[in-house]
Amino acid sequence: MPGITLRDVQKSYGGYTAVTGLDLEVRDGEFLCLLGPSGCGKTTTLRMIAGLENLTGGSLAVGDRVVDCPDRATFVAPEKRGMGLVFQSYALWPHLTIEDNVGFGLKLRKVGRAERKKRTQEVMEALGIAKYAGRYPSQLSGGQQQRVALARMLAVNPSVLLLDEPLSNLDARLRLEMRAELKRIHESFKTTIVFVTHDQWEAMTLADTIAVMNEGTLQQLGTPDDIYERPANRFVAEFVGSPPINILEFGMEDELVQGARRYLGQRHPQISGAGSIGIRPESIRIETDKAALREADFSAPAKVSGILPTGGSWIVELETGGRAMFMNTHVAPRVSVGDRLWLQVPARALNVFDARGVRVAAADEVLSHAAA
């Protein structure tokens, strides 16, 4: 199956630019998520890949075949790109049975009845909906209807499967089930998948690669671990993660920021140009005894100002240096509101950004070496 290559892709609507300077490669058989807030350009990008939107500039190729390039006056129609598109709306035919819905695309392609029935049955069995073959869409749950929509696309064996927030209409339990289903589909069919979502956990749990977008530009492309542990800038760091990352702005002169600045200056003078530090809530540890602190770690005195159970984990609010810091733990905290203690963070868990919010490139190597 072919990969997809976007080079310097632009998309404008009159005076509004939706996507600008986008360079992106989706490898053969890859599951890539386009992640970002509403209006960031992710759905527009998907629609350009599908051929539902024309590029304003740049080029888009599927394998070695250029399918859209304004400079060459090249545009390949959506139905000739070999792609399947599943929208947020299931768009099932209410008057057709599930079997007929699944086989609808094959019928349009004039596939013979015997072959159509065979292929339809195989896909329905793979997605666990064969037992509903004689029912109608109104007789199925939302999750079952979503499986039918996916089966309809997979039946025609598309080279690329494009999914535009297909799980957003489902409740929490069904969303979880369908995430697992999509992972299984990808492993079974080896289809190249491009998936649009604003849900960070969907992207983290489903994707091989995540492309984080904001205001029409690509912020970072990487594995889920890269995106979470080594965010390219503050936007990525603050968008991905719940509870959100704690940010210490060096422009603010509270005690905690001063302590962080001193820590970097004394322990890691190789790092220059730091404008802020990001600390993930799960990277924070607490100690009631100062003597138990590791000398190499960043530490500060704190007071427990809140404990929030979330079911299976706890968010602990810490007041330190005149500000609130949030810690996340999967072990029941043995502290109470009002307790005074110490917070500590390993050097390797500090995300250092410059004054523009860009990750300080040397920080990973320096801090990891220091923590070893």
Order of strands in the sheet with most strands: 7-8-9-3-10-11
CATH topology call of the largest domain: Rossmann fold
**Helix content range:** 25-40%
Strand-residue fraction? 25-35%
Given helix and strand content, the structural type is alpha+beta
Q: Calculate Rg over CA atoms.
A: 25 Å
- What's the helix-strand series? EEEHEEEEHHHHEHEHEEHHEHEEEEEEEH
Overall mean confidence score, pLDDT = 89
Biggest sheet character: 6 strands, mixed
CATH architecture of the largest domain: 3-Layer(aba) Sandwich
Please work out how many helical segments DSSP would assign.
11
Family: Belongs to the ABC transporter superfamily.
Protein name: Carbohydrate ABC transporter ATP-binding protein, CUT1 family
Keywords: ATP-binding, Cell membrane, Hydrolase, Membrane, Nucleotide-binding, Translocase, Transport
InterPro entries: AAA+_ATPase, ABC_transporter-like_ATP-bd, ABC_transporter-like_CS, ABC_transpr_MalK/UgpC-like, Mo/tungstate-bd_C_term_dom, NA-bd_OB-fold, P-loop_NTPase, Transp-assoc_OB_typ2
In short:
This protein has 11 helices and 19 strands.
Q: What does this 3D model show about the protein?
A:
This protein starts with a strand and ends with a helix. The longest helix has 18 residues, at 172-189. It has helices spanning 42-50, 98-102, 104-108, 113-126, 142-155, 172-189, 200-206, 224-229, 234-239, 255-267, 361-371; strands at 4-13, 16-26, 31-35, 57-62, 65-69, 74-75, 83-86, 160-164, 192-197, 209-214, 217-222, 246-249, 274-279, 285-287, 298-309, 314-320, 323-329, 340-345, 350-354. It has 11 helices and 19 strands. The protein folds into 2 domains: 4-233, Rossmann fold (3-Layer(aba) Sandwich); 246-371, Nucleic acid-binding proteins (OB fold (Dihydrolipoamide Acetyltransferase, E2P)), CATH 2.40.50.140. A hairpin with a 4-residue loop joins strand 15 and strand 16 (314-320). Helix 4 crosses helix 5 and helix 5 (142-155) runs parallel beside helix 6. The mean pLDDT is 89. Strands 7-8-9-3-10-11 form a 6-stranded mixed sheet, with helices on both faces. The protein has 372 residues and is an alpha+beta fold.
